[in-house]
Prior knowledge:
This protein has strands at residues 13-16, 30-38, 49-51, 54-59, 67-71, 77-82, 90-91, 95-98, 104-111, 117-124, 131-135, 139-146, 152-158, 178-183, 189-195, 210-214, 218-223, 228-233, 238-243, 251-257, 263-269, 274-281, 286-294, 297-303, 306-311, 318-324. The strands form 6 sheets. Strands 1-2-26-25-24 form a 5-stranded antiparallel beta sheet, with no helix packed on it. Strands 7, 8, 9, 10 and 11 form a 5-stranded antiparallel beta sheet that branches. By secondary structure, the chain is mainly beta.
Amino acid sequence: xxxxxxxESSVLxxxxxxxxxxxxxxxxxLAKRSxxxxxxxxxxxxxxxxxxxxxxxxEGENTAQPQLRAFDNEGRLTTSVVLRVTGATLxxxxxxxxxxxxxxxxxxxxxxSEGRGAPYLAIFSANxxxxxxxxxxPYHPFKVTVASDGTIWTMGHESAVRQAGGPKPHPxxxxxxxxxxxxxxxxxxxxxxxxQSNIPSPSDLLDLGNYLGASAKSVAWYCVPENRYVEISLxxxxxxxxxxxxxxxxQVTGFAITDAGxxxxxxxxxxxxxxxxARLGRDRQEWATVGGGDGWGILYGAHGTTLVGSTxxxxxxxLEFFEAVD
Length: 326
């Protein structure tokens, strides 16, 4: 799973608004607006995601019934739902996202008592009132996002039929299948984009450096192994398909796309260790640093036009809210 598992929902979350920066931002174009201090420990846990106006976490991942929880920007628990897949004794959660209508989507694999696994897409209606689970075989969704129109988009892979004696770790991709899929709110597939014939290696689609997000008018996929950025408008038009590599030797730690369409990544460099946030210049096909500081930092996503992340420049277990100012 790529999600962060939390403690019980009774934990308290305190909101602390700040007027000063706790780290030395390297560029005036990145302004910190506020921070939210969490009263539980995030150390040695996987990364959460900020989507649809909430921080989404998974508890009990790799169990029969993982719990999905959403916290708003004031730290209040707004939703807690249990992901149940009929017949499954183990459910993995590779991706999770929330819509602006408070619906939640999750994807991964479900395994039964005999060890047989199958990929799934799970869709909770607003605030978890109803759950629909769709088996997506032979397509394996790896990331998910909910667009502003309520459609659900996934990034994943579909393998070709394995031939006898063929490669086992990464069988070849079915070239005519799409990496990106679009589903209506009921889980019916209604679109397919980015042919797998254009993917150099199947392992690129299994890498943790794949990010999927949504603005008010589009859906974006960023594939770090390929340094590839793809953006698709909600009317199904490919508006960007470019290759853009972060400056220098940097590890990408997070990704965000704002409602206004601004695209950002967080990176960390070593020797000395430093975090940076960079904005994508689509026309120039380059990342431009807008701010940073010493130590470590990550973007979890965007809240409207505000970036949400965490850096080592503040107290431990703190969410920080940034705005890129032109």
